[in-house]
Design brief:
Elements (H helix, E strand, L loop, with lengths): L1 H14 L3 H36 L7 H11 L4 H10 L5 H4 L1
């Protein structure tokens, strides 16, 4: 995940930064960690809701149901992609 990479890079930069720069880097890291936690909550909420909606859909019905719902959900594309991957709904063509 890009956020994790950014946090790691900032942590490395902080080691050699002046105290003022280190404070700014710490603020940036905190903001990135909050964003990561917020995204994770969004993903978890979407997965919980979709498990309820897709619970009755079996086998071949799950993917068309997901494709329909995906087009109507108001979530960022990266969240939709993560939900799709975690629920095992990504088609083989998309996984490549």
């Amino acid at each position: 995940m890009k956020t994790d990479t950014a946090i790691e890079i900032l942590a490395t930069l902080k080691k050699s930064a002046s105290s003022r720069e280190a404070e700014a880097i710490a603020l940036a890291v905190g903001a990135l960690e909050e964003a990561r936690e917020r995204r994770e909550r969004e993903v978890a909420q979407a997965i919980d809701a979709l498990r309820v909606l897709l619970g009755d859909a079996e086998g071949a019905e799950r993917e068309p149901t997901w494709r329909f719902l995906r087009g109507h959900l108001n979530l960022p594309p990266d969240v939709l992609d993560e939900v799709e991957a975690r629920l095992g709904l990504a088609s083989k063509e998309e996984a490549r």
